[in-house]
Amino acid sequence: MRSPPAQVTLPSAGPAALLARLEFQREAAADGEALRFPLQLLGGHAAEDWLGGGGAEILPGGPGLQLRRSGDYLFGLLSVPAAQSVDMERAAFLAYGHLLRLLQERGYPHPLRIWNYFHEVTGGDGDDERYRRFCVGRHEAIAAPGFESRLPAATVIGTFVPGLQLGFLAGKRPGIPVENPRQVSAYHYPREYSPRAPSFARATLLDRLLLVSGTASVVGHATQHPYDAPAQLRETVDNIGALLAHARQQHFAEEPALRWQPRALRLYVRDAAQAAALQAQAEALLGGPLMVLHGEICRRDLEVEIEGVFEAISR
């Protein structure tokens, strides 16, 4: 029996209402209620419920687009068919261009959190690797003077079904990007990783809610513990701990008793056979509502990735 959905309540002046339910299944299909992503759920909580204030509603989106609105927030899922995502650079460029225009037109111009899921993320060699082509296409779509200071939190994970899916949360007001002192900012990665560096922040702060990007066993910009999933998970948790400490020091220094409460966590694992052991390890180290998903990490020597939402709580 699956655990009930994890719950994330976005900061809002009005009463909380369900903005979007996020579900995962390998063969994701459009649904009148939930936003479904094409990853297999291996354990933990069955879904995530994201709540906002101001009365939630389902908006007409059009082909390949599902939209949910509640007060200050817009949640959506943009799906690109397999035939249009073979050329990943072009697919990313067009999808991000579409997304940015959509957010402006709908009055939610600030991307806060983006999930990027696509097939064979590490397929191809050298600069032809699909992840590298994705990074180029995304960068070309969003690059503008000073854009690094406005980047959202993000995740990129490989799926086992064709196509490209962009899940997104946007707002009427911007969040605050937060970087990790233990890691080089992704947008400053050296050329060896891609012709264009990945374009995301390590986290986005919304009032007292911290949206943490997909985080892996990377210190500086180098992979630690190649191909060793348990060791990578420990290193990843250390990275998240450093990020939380930095966010607390930067933004909550006057609250010495503050702690970070996990509201929703996702653990992505490359090897499904290790899922149960890694789930137990992650739950022991992090606590909080955890969802375990089968997906490919964006470097071939990385076995796990963790993302999450944490709330600043005064003790």
UniProtKB/TrEMBL annotation:
A Pfam family it matches: FkbO_Hyg5-like_N
- Residue span, Chorismatase FkbO/Hyg5-like N-terminal domain: 65-170
> Which InterPro entries does the UniProt record give?
FkbO_Hyg5-like_N, RutC-like_sf
Designated name of the protein:
Pteridine-dependent deoxygenase
